[in-house]
Amino acid sequence: MTTTHADAVTTMRATVAALHQHLTAYNLVAWTSGNVSGRVPDRDLFVIKPSGVDYADLTADAMVVCDLDGAVVDGELDPSSDTAAHAYIYRNRPDVGGVVHTHSSYASAWAARGEAIPCVLTAMADEFGGEIPVGPFAIIGDDSIGRGIVQTLEGQRSPAVLMRNHGVFAVGPTPRAAVKAAVMCEDVARTVHLARQLGTPIPIAASDVDRLYERYQNRYGQAGRRS
Ligand SMILES: [Zn+2]
């Protein structure tokens, strides 16, 4: 590696390590489950959480660097057991710079029923541009999880997918954006679940979803500075 490339890897190690604190802060994970990864800019590499390490011990040095086939390039620990799924996404979605996986409770409860979360909140229209879709049942060990994620997200505006009987995979242009999508996915999964207990949530008209999404994605906040 040249110095520049080594620096990019070092930076992404620190970024990915630090982002894991959001998974615990937002109560999205139990024990060592859940993981964040980030693509190294301009390199066919990504940085991912090691397998089975306590969240308190997830330092930058503990992160694992893999190529886009999921093979370890640098790191002393074994990578996350979800590495093949992350690698498949990076290989097939050049626009994706970060991937997050959680078994967050409310979203996974929708996944357990195989039910998409309907777009019944303006926050959902803003962030997801419609429903949060459900992907197929897939067992860890080959490309089937990654393929199911990529195929389900194709043609959707949602950056998150509920893999049936499993949990959430979220993507974004950066690892931070993917973490945000995972946090927001759990937040709306909880609220829509609560609404369901009290009655029938009211759908938002497709034209209003479009307007909300366009406004939020292009004009909300510090325009051009969001990540
Ligand atoms: Zn999982």
Question: Explain this structure to me?
Answer:
This protein has 227 residues and is an alpha+beta fold. Strands 4-3-2-1-5-8-7-6 form an eight-stranded mixed β-sheet, with helices on both faces. The chain contains seven helices and eight strands; from the N terminus they run αββββαβααβαββαα. The model has no long low-confidence stretch (mean pLDDT 95). It has helices at residues 3-25, 83-92, 105-113, 122-128, 144-153, 175-198, 206-219; strands at 35-39, 45-48, 64-67, 72-74, 98-102, 134-135, 160-163, 167-172. 43% of the residues lie in helices and 15% in strands. Zinc ion (ZN) is lined by residues 101, 103, 166-167. Zinc ion binds next to loops.
Topology:
Elements: H1 3-25, E1 35-39, E2 45-48, E3 64-67, E4 72-74, H2 83-92, E5 98-102, H3 105-113, H4 122-128, E6 134-135, H5 144-153, E7 160-163, E8 167-172, H6 175-198, H7 206-219
Parallel strand pairs: 6-7
Antiparallel strand pairs: 1-2, 1-5, 2-3, 3-4, 5-8, 7-8
Residues 101, 103, 166-167 line the site of zinc ion.
